Here is the input.
Amino acid sequence: MGKPTGFKEIARQDRTYAPVADRLTHYQEFVIPMTDEAVSQQGARCMDCGIPFCHQGCPVNNIIPDWNDLVYKTDWRAAIEVLHSTNNFPEFTGRICPAPCEAACTLNLEDEPVTIKTIEYSIIEKAWQEGWVKPQIAEHKSGKRVAVVGSGPAGMAAAQQLARAGHGVVLYEKQNRIGGLLRYGIPDFKLDKKVIDRRMAQMRTEGVEFKTNIHIGVDIQVKQLLDEFDAVVLAGGAEKPRDLPIPGRELNGVHFAMDFLRSNSHRVQGDKVENFISAEGKRVVVIGGGDTGSDCIGTSNRHGAASVTQLEILPRPPEQENKGTTWPNWPNRMRTSSSQEEGCERMWQVATKAFVDDGNGNLAGVTCIKVEWNKDEQGSWQMSEVAGSEFELKAELVTLAMGFVHPVHEGMIEELGVELDGRGNVKASTEGSNAYKTSIDGVFSAGDMRRGQSLVVWAIREGRQCARAVDEYLMGSSDLPIW
Amino acid sequence: MPSTRSIAAVLTSQATIEGAGLNEIAAEAVKWHDKAYGDQLIYKRHLDVGGDYAYRLRGEDHNWTPQTIAKLQHSVRSNDWNTYQEFARSINEQNEILLTLRGLFEFKFADNPIPLDEVEPAGEIVKRFATGAMSFGSISYEAHSTLAKAMNTIGGKSNTGEGGEEPERFNPLPDGSRNPERSAIKQVASGRFGVTTEYLVNADDIQIKMAQGAKPGEGGQLPGHKVNQQIARVRHSTPGVGLISPPPHHDIYSIEDLAQLIHDLKNANPNARISVKLVSEVGVGTVAAGVSKAHADHVTIAGYDGGTGASPLTSIKHAGSPWEIGLAETHQTLVLNQLRGRIAVQADGGMRTGRDVVVAALLGADEIGFATAPLIAEGCLMMRKCHLNTCPVGIATQDPELRKRFTGKPEHVINYFFFVAEEARQLMAKLGFRSFNEMIGQSDRLDMRKAISHWKAKGLDYSRLLRKPEAGEGVAIYNCEGQDHGLDKALDKKLIELAKPALERGEPVKIEIDIHNYNRTFGTMLSGRLAEKYGYAGLPDDTVYIKVKGTAGQSFGAWVTKGVSLELAGEGNDYVGKGLSGGRLVIYPPAESKIGKAEENIIVGNTVLYGAISGECFFRGVAGERFGVRNSGATAVVEGVGDHGCEYMTGGIVVCLGPTGRNFAAGMSGGIAYVLDEQGDFSDRCNLAQVELEPIEDEDIALEELDHQGGDLESHGRVDLSHDMTRFDALRLKQLVERHLHYTNSEVAKRILDNWSSILPKFVKVMPVEYRRALKEMQAQQMVAEVESKGSH
Here is the structure.
């Protein structure tokens, strides 16, 4: 398999981005795909490890060495079949996954991992192009009906798998379009929404019924679903954002990141938006250094912000991780996202003390303080403020991108009375005979709603595995794969 | 593991631990069928991945997984006991994934555990640990020497593996201290590569590898592209020429033969323990009893688990059996036959954790061998690309660029072994054992785990495995006695005494002595003492000149070093010149012999010059079978050979002045042979798979060139001739025949020389194809180098 000496002969090559000045003028994807030939060469770099750490490092356990080899041998058709066997939506992960597989690649020991994500992207895009992605309509219908609440990646994956197992599936979404965070959280310039529409068309043919603008627990009581369906999957995500309850929180111009991003995405996709949050001409401060923070930066710059500053409370990560004690795990290391590259000032070890009022209830600035991190006697990290290090940043717009604490409890979850875990997520395990089962018979949960905020790829995994659990529950056994 | 009943239905054998019946086997087949022909989408167009040889989540379960490897490596690199414990837990706890027999054991802990600080310290336990026999050649210098440094630091033992060891690694440091890169265990495997006298005397243990747990009954081979200059040097072979380790030892066809090899090696190095490596299988107990009776000091029972990435795919799995089975049988048999005390028993094959160590001790092991786990500790990722030379972590590769990627440190390996020992101590405390010795063979402290839920494991029965043999009063159940090797009766004791001037001051001595066929292994102990002092280089030729008279026993002249000449008027037996390391052996019938024509009679027995490294032999008469088998570099003249002459030869020169048996040159990858083919039918008896037959051309020009250099054929000319094996054949051959005449007064030699020009065309040169290619490549490289060096001036 593969080319044994490929990794020594062929240099790592990856997709590139369009120039910053160019891409800032629009909301379209700006990653430049590679030619089939170039991707095929990259496939030759895979060493077909006896223990492929990428296969384990990937949350959906993509069988990466197999399709790397198939791409090297230009058998793209077999490659998409192997890829689809573990991942319902490689077009999503091929675009926005942070690629823990590449961190786990044996060649990452030398910082030269196989460009797995690009290969994945190339396989699925080629497959769409060639018309190889066809609906897989169940040969037999079970006569069972399943409601999936929430149409993010977990809900979509569960719905597709269940439909393929022959169940009647209705996918509920409270927004006006399917996709959850894929639709309105992740900006269009990172994930073109046609990609979701394309996949929805396949799912519709496979028998998934999409119902949008229905907020379960608000528009319809969840009890109604329990009566109408044989099983219910809760895949509503972890949408409760972490707040920053400091003086001035109520000022005009202080927003949760997701409100800012959602309003923008609606507008980009052609919806009329009331109370649109614009960053145009404003000095923007993004609080939180994660992916959502980056999305705020990219969006602000496209709005035409005067400046963008990103605050992170943790120290600046090291440029290079210690491979010996981190690989094949995801390393904490300095990374610069495409949005950060487009222009922003990044500050580390900064805590926010207050939002400054311009006198009219509008935001005028942010009072900050430097912090230090030291280990206490028990060896856990403790933060302390550096006395006298206060400073102020002028700002007219702040987005709070400090993560999500747990699912929204009001509405569906409270009405159901389903048991929660210590962190406020819907309680369910992922292994054994009770996998994905909540405390209520016939009610399952998957994705961020069960595990808390996480990656799209984890949501896909949970959706798939949950579908198997539901299938087993309904039918007594299941042919759907665990992996 | 099938059950006895299901075996009896098809075979006549017995199952040690019982197991699945035909019903379970059928159920599994049905399961496979369902997968292949059922409704599962993922198998609609693709076969089940299997995952036997490359880990796949959908496939076979493995002990070494991304998680266990990462945990082990992270723990040893940061000396983090907690992470090690997580690693050990995931290996030890096999609740649903049943991968080892010991995974289904449970301990019967003591009612009153003892405090941990009363248990033998970890620093003592690690001395019982050894690393596996992985050769330098199969793994890089960096990987190999890191294991050695680690084991030398903790007082354990590392193993050379097959293929010798560079003197730079075992010679003492300039300050006289012990070399940290020295491998304490020197392996003697069927290929005998690099097994010089010097190698043997620099060992604490000499391990005779009868077989390998991971590929029992199979030989091995090092592909030509892995044989670089350095490896060729330590193996005394030619760079670029592939090396084959034959499946059997050609000097061992019976337990008596094994006893002879043990005796030979003990003679070469009386201070070393002689160890025999066996493979776990049903019936190994009987073999081990024989090994103990054959005076081995140590026996290894190697299990199938673990195993090399370079093994043939057919052997990586399901060849051999678990060490638990072989170890239990070995220990029980040795105890019942009162042979246990005089031999140390080592278990090896997939040892990973302290729990494994304790289980092995309870089943009867004094010592424990680890191979894969310490390799992983120093960076191995189980790429299973060992045979491709592309190991990306610089372990199983000789590629200089890839070797730079090696990041292992001796400390990593040391940390690993201390973690293992510490985990073992904690279990010993719970079991109530203060010392390791107390624990050995206490198999009644193990039980089969209750409530095994796995559908295939239900029929298992461990009672035979866990039976504790009744040992009478005073019968030792662990290694606490020694073997009597009978060395005090050796003639070499006398030789050493008489050769004192040479041993101490390098002065020439002449010795005359009588020999009888009960005097086995002659000249070997003396050579060992010389090698200790003078190394492989030895002393000038003939410094110790021993004239011997009579009928020699087996292994006459084994491992005789440079500077020692044995002239035997009489006859040799089997194994003459085994491992010859530079000495000269001359054997001819005594003048008063009434046998008639020497060239029509056997003068030396079978398997002569097996594994010879260098030196010269002149035998006036015919040799038995397998003459020059695995010869690496000795030169020999003989007047006829039996079947399989020059088998697996990799270097040296054999001149045969008479007829040969069949299958000559089988597996011969190097060296050359000149055969006098007066009947013209040699090609029928030569195995032409790897060699070609050539006439010997009279090279006038070559002769002239040499004459200009002085024409001193005895010294100057000889050096030049051995330099280029692709030319000067006629000259080389003539010299050797002349010397044969000189040393043995051979009538055949005289006849040939008297009729040189008419007989020369009847000689055939046997030339291995790969060897010729490698020699030509080396010449080309040399010429390029010469041109370049001239150009730079």
